[in-house]
Design a protein that fits this description.
mainly alpha, Growth Hormone, Chain: A, 20 helices
Length: about 425
């Protein structure tokens, strides 16, 4: 397969300021991970008791984690839908639409009555909105990554592609920080009754900010150039699967380690830490807020290194480190010691930042302009199905049956899958984008 070419567009092209492009690419993924982690935290803490009438806490936790996975199943559908319009109509309008769908679904979750109020309709409405959230999220990351990389100068796509990748750290801190403050200020009864809804409703404010910023940006130079050359295809997804199936699958498998590290070290660990290790909710949330700072630190280090040394070497080293980290789960997290638990969370989230950062440049570089939105989005979201949708559920089952050592083995296996995919890829750092 020939190398796709992308345009080395200058960030200032079309009087478009670099800071505005960077912020517009960053804000969407920050809201994306805020919205997703708001639900993930609620799933670990209250979704089970509020929406599922099982007598067993373990059954409630498993049911909550099933609803968590629904959005990941919806995300590829969203990437097909928004990818089609992103490659046919343009990056800007598609990014506005995906953010609106995502934010509206998240906000409405905060208003869904619990099982005690409306019975079986409650989990049905929850699943519908969770599916809608996934549809919107499916179109978000690919467009944000393209917005950054299609404006980036040659040789700095890793640096520019880093800004969407900072979204998880900021979104995580905003979400966890809000839950942490609620845990400190509300009683357990207040939190379970109405407090957990506040972070969902706050999403509406963040989405309004994101929409304002994105409506101010111009279309990317690469897409404008593709229009001028009449390179659009009628059905981008058909072209993607007929001509670019291999890079799509490799990109998806490379993403598995990122998702697994993030959701095992946050969703599963939070649930395990509170229910099994008997940490208080606010204490464990505080440890996660501390650990995610190291994910933010790792992101620019890894992104800049990928510009200097290449995407493959940086990702390969990070995947090997992630494989080894799985063996640390039992002695560190399983110890129940606050310092050891904090160290484990720090290691896992640092490695998440290291593996995630180069993806902002790598996945768009795998595809030509006329299918890039679709290709990057599909690869990213298929990776989510494989790495995250069932990760907390599988981890909970493994912990119940074999203990934390089995969960650690799951982390190592996921990292090994991504390592093999990275090694099978070609290096994309020096591709010229036009």
């Amino acid at each position: 397969m020939s190398s796709p070419s992308l345009s080395a567009a200058k960030p200032g092209d079309g009087a478009q300021s670099t800071s505005r492009v960077i912020f517009a690419s960053f804000i969407g993924t920050a809201i994306e991970f805020y919205d997703f982690y708001v639900y993930a935290t609620a799933a670990a803490l209250v979704i089970g008791p509020v929406f599922f009438p099982h007598g067993s806490p373990a059954a409630q936790a498993l049911s909550a984690f099933v609803t968590f996975g629904i959005a990941f199943l919806a995300r590829p559908i969203g990437s097909f839908l928004f990818g089609h319009f992103g490659d046919r109509v343009g990056r800007k309008s598609t990014l506005v639409a995906s953010l609106l769908v995502m934010g509206l679904s998240t906000t409405l979750i905060g208003f869904v009555p619990g099982y005690d109020s409306i019975g079986g309709l409650a989990p049905v409405l929850l699943c519908i909105l969770r599916f809608g959230q996934g549809i919107g999220l499916g179109g978000e990351w690919g467009g944000a990554a393209l917005l950054a990389t299609e404006y980036a100068p040659q040789g700095k796509r890793g640096l520019f592609g880093m800004f969407p990748q900072l979204g998880p750290s900021v979104g995580f801190l905003a979400s966890n920080g809000l839950f942490f403050s609620l845990a400190l200020s509300l009683s357990d009864e207040q939190f379970r009754s109405w407090g957990w809804r506040v972070p969902f409703i706050v999403s509406a404010v963040l989405v309004a900010l994101g929409l304002y910023v994105r409506l101010k940006i111009a279309e990317t130079p690469a897409f404008r150039a593709a229009l001028e050359r009449h390179e659009r295809v009628k059905v981008p997804i058909a072209t993607l699967f007929s001509r670019y199936l291999a890079p799509t699958l490799l990109g998806a498998l490379a993403m598995v380690v990122c998702y697994t590290l993030f959701y095992i070290s946050t969703v599963f660990s939070l649930s395990y830490g509170v229910s099994t290790l008997h940490f208080s909710r606010e204490k464990f949330l505080g440890l996660l807020c501390f650990a995610v700072l190291f994910m933010a630190i790792a992101t620019p280090i890894s992104a800049i290194a990928s510009d200097r040394f290449g995407r493959k070497p940086v990702l390969a080293v990070s995947c090997i480190a992630a494989i080894l980290s799985g063996f640390a789960m039992l002695p560190l997290l399983g110890s129940g010691n606050t310092a050891y638990v904090a160290l484990f969370l720090t290691i896992e989230l640092f490695l998440m930042g290291a593996t995630f950062a180069p993806m902002g440049a790598l996945l768009p570089e795998l595809f030509p302009t006329n299918v890039r939105y679709t290709g990057a989005g599909v690869a990213y979201n298929l990776g989510g199905i494989l790495g995250a949708s069932v990760a907390p559920y599988i981890a909970q089952l493994l912990a119940n049956r074999g203990g934390l050592a089995w969960v650690g083995g799951y982390v190592s296996a996921a990292a090994a899958v991504s390592l093999l995919a990275v090694l099978a890829m070609r290096e994309t750092r020096d591709i010229v984008l036009e």
